[in-house]
Design brief:
The protein has 736 residues and is of the alpha/beta class. The protein contains 21 helices and 27 strands. Bound molecules: alpha-D-glucopyranose. Alpha-D-glucopyranose binds next to loops.
Length: 736
């Protein structure tokens, strides 16, 4: 028999077996057949559903204790068996499995419930806040940490996390800046992809993976003046060149869902914005998952002045492209009526339900609706998880100042450890810390005591509280400082000072903290300031007084261990800022990728303060020194559609190994649409041993890396000169 006939015969055999598999049992509805293709199961189930059952799938209630004080949601005591989804606030799967059993056995079609929760930077093994993660420039660690969170969440009864938060933000007054990856669209996109991969893996049906949710779609980070829940002024141009890119990257990476935002977009609320939710997300990006509204974001359309009542709010949000309504029951109350009135076509309902069912099938919920109930010690705070998140925390730490190499603290025999954060545990968790517990956190004091055991004594004094007028502790703190070789002063923010609804009019720390520093300086000893905070801070006065400044962010359960390692020299700090630290609050907004001003020099500058930030994007010191060699191009001309490479050797000329990140920027000085003075297009972090040289390489794809977008997202690449920039070097390339 000829080869071709054998192949044909084999193909026929495979086909007939697969048909048999699909139709294996006539009594089992196709949607319950785990071997059938997802799309067939979706269509089969959809065809069996009535309107009420369909609408239930488009609603999300809450289940368990609601710990978000900003959302005084009504605990739904009697959650209907047909409900599409709940926000699940418990850390164990029992309650979830009880509701799931009700859904599988008491509802007509046995459609499993989808359990979501805010697993923003860890479930119980809390790792650094996303803003800190972004300063690690290590997407692999972000992916690994997200995988830890996914494993703990899924094994605890949560199938879906409302994360990653990928709102580009530049205003530190906005408390939610803590939850995102900083000011740069490209970097945010890279971290978005890493976290989606960590959460979802290659197969979301795994009992250690969860569905991701890109939020808050879109433009929430532009909330005017850093206030929360308000309006934005975002041009279509800025929408495309700044706020949408991370979402496009996340959708391309396969993110299952998105969450529509509270803010409006220049007058059209994000949760009723057909352009972003349907034209862009569904029609252009072909997203095949679904969009859930933010909490009450549908009913809030009335407050925002675009809906007269809850019924119109339901119609506007649904017809714009929000498939699921979080907690305000607008869809529950009005969608059937709107369908019967012909205002909402049934095909739109079907498309929305199709999207929700598709994600439930991909999560494997129809075939494995229940969470295996294993003991907490078998799924939470696992040793390998703790090691992973400690490494994450180490690489987020940014050394901002180190005068006279006062760090690392070698030789100190007595260390005065002072400040409101010195013995604190809870606030090191940061905002949105899910089921993280203060007792899981190693305080700075405990970490320092262990780190310096046998080398130095740690003597503690609180000195002051986070804020307030009480200076009674100053005298004791000064006495401890006078009696020590060096002072380590732990300042910063409470975890509740950042996150949702925590806007502050200033990014300076409370006066009492700065005054404690001034008081301690009277001891005449070196002062090292450690900062634990959820936003960029105004440090101009602290910078003048501190001999060293270490930005440790809010590290999660690793707590003080990583920073103790930095102070002892065990850890060489490698963090670089992913957010600009302004000279003062008055400079906001200030970010590295601003467009060029009309006038150069000192025109258009502030008359009373510098117009440059205190610490710029990408800034961070190391215990070693790096010498950058000369950038080299493989060619200085490139055709549209062409590629070229640029390399730069970096030598570690210091005395110890270090992790160095090279940030590759481009600049297009002349474009039909003015472009930022520079744009990050690639970054790479490498270990460089003392004395070693490593070559960093950027493979430039002209279309991808040099082009720009217009106000409707159309990418264009214009001929002309472009520059590749690394630190103070820039090389010209010409696009022909
Ligand atoms: C909150 C937040 C959102 C969160 C949701 C559910 O209001 O804006 O980020 O995922 O409600 O808790």
């Amino acid at each position: 028999m000829k080869k071709k006939q054998i192949v044909q015969l084999f193909g026929l055999l495979v086909f007939s077996v697969s048909v048999q598999a699909v139709a294996k049992d006539k009594n089992t509805p196709l949607y319950k057949d785990a071997k059938a293709p997802v799309e067939q199961r979706v269509e089969d189930l959809l065809s069996r559903m009535n309107l009420e059952e369909k609408i239930y799938q488009l609603n999300q209630y809450t289940l368990g204790f609601n710990n978000n004080i900003n959302n005084l949601g009504e605990a739904v005591k009697n959650v209907p068996a047909e409900i599409g989804s709940v926000i699940y606030f418990e850390a164990d799967p029992q309650l979830r499995n009880g509701l799931q059993k009700k859904a599988m056995e008491e509802s007509r079609l046995g459609i499993p419930v989808l359990f979501g929760y805010d697993v923003i930077h860890g479930f119980r093994t809390v790792y650094p806040i996303p803003l800190a993660q972004a300063c690690s420039w290590n997407p692999a660690l972000v992916e690994q940490s997200s995988a830890v969170a996914a494993q703990e969440a899924r094994m605890s009864g949560v199938d879906w996390t409302f994360s990653p938060m990928i709102d580009v933000a530049r205003d530190g007054r906005w408390g939610r800046i803590a939850e995102g990856y900083g000011e740069d669209p490209y970097a945010t996109g890279v971290y978005t992809v890493a976290s989606v991969k960590g959460y979802q893996g290659d197969d979301m049906s795994s009992d250690k993976r969860v569905a991701a949710c890109l939020k808050h779609y879109v433009g929430y980070g532009a909330s005017e003046a850093g206030r929360d829940y308000v309006y934005t002024e975002i041009s279509r141009q800025s929408l495309w060149d700044t706020y949408l890119p991370p979402y496009e990257a996340g959708v391309k990476a396969g993110a299952a869902t998105l969450m529509s935002a509270f803010n409006d977009i220049s007058g059209v609320p994000a949760s009723a914005n057909h352009y972003t939710l349907t034209e862009v997300l569904k029609n252009r990006w072909k997203h095949d998952g679904f969009v859930v509204s933010d909490w009450d974001a549908v009913v809030q359309l009335v407050n925002q002045g675009v809906a007269a009542d809850t019924k119109e709010a339901a119609e506007k949000a649904f017809m714009a492209g929000v498939e699921m309504d979080m907690t305000d029951n607008c869809y529950q109350r009005h969608l059937a009526e709107l369908v019967n009135e012909g205002k909402v076509p049934m095909q739109n309902i079907d498309d929305a339900v199709r999207r929700v069912l598709r994600i439930k099938f991909r999560l494997g919920l129809f075939d494995n609706p229940y969470t295996k109930e294993v003991k907490q010690e078998e799924r939470l705070l696992l040793p390998q998880s703790l090691r992973a998140v400690e490494q994450m925390a180490e690489e987020t730490i940014v050394l901002l100042k180190n005068a006279d190499n006062v760090l690392p603290l070698s030789g100190a025999k007595k260390i005065a450890l002072v400040g409101p954060l010195a013995k604190n545990q809870a606030d090191l968790l940061g905002s949105w810390s899910a089921h993280g517990r203060a007792q899981d956190v190693c305080s700075i004091y405990d970490a320092m005591t262990r780190e310096f055991a046998g080398k130095a004594d740690i003597v503690y004094a609180q000195g002051c509280d986070f804020d307030g007028e009480n200076r009674d502790g100053f005298a004791e703190a000064l006495a401890v400082a006078k009696n020590a070789d060096v002072v380590v002063l732990c300042l910063g923010e409470k975890r509740g000072w950042s996150g949702e609804n925590t806007s502050r009019s200033t990014i300076a720390l409370p006066a009492v903290q700065e005054e404690l520093l001034a008081e301690l300086k009277k001891a005449g000893k070196p002062v090292v300031v450690l900062l634990s905070n959820g936003r960029p801070l105004e440090l101009v006065r602290i910078e003048k007084q501190a001999d060293a400044i270490v930005e440790m962010w809010q590290p999660g359960v690793a707590g003080g261990k990583p920073v103790a390692g930095v102070l002892s020299g065990r850890v060489n700090p490698s963090g670089r800022l992913a957010i600009t630290f302004p000279y003062s609050t008055g400079q906001i907004p200030i970010y590295y990728n601003q467009r060029p001003p009309a006038r150069k020099g000192n025109q258009g500058r502030y008359q009373d303060i510098p117009s440059t930030p205190l610490y710029e994007f990408g800034y961070g010191l190391s215990y070693t020194d790096y010498k950058y060699g000369t950038m080299k191009l493989s060619a200085d001309k490139v055709k549209r559609g062409g590629k070229l490479t640029v390399e730069i050797p970096v030598t570690n000329v210091g005395g110890r190994d270090g992790l160095e990140t090279v940030h590759w920027f481009i600049n297009d000085p002349v474009s039909s649409i003015a472009r930022p003075v520079k744009e990050l297009k690639f970054f790479e972090k490498q270990l460089i041993k003392a004395g070693e040289t490593k070559v960093f390489r950027f493979d430039i794809d002209a279309e991808r890396d040099l082009s720009f977008v217009d106000s409707d997202g159309k990418r264009f690449l214009e001929p002309g000169d472009y520059y590749i920039i690394v630190k103070d070097q820039k090389l010209k390339i010409s696009v022909e």
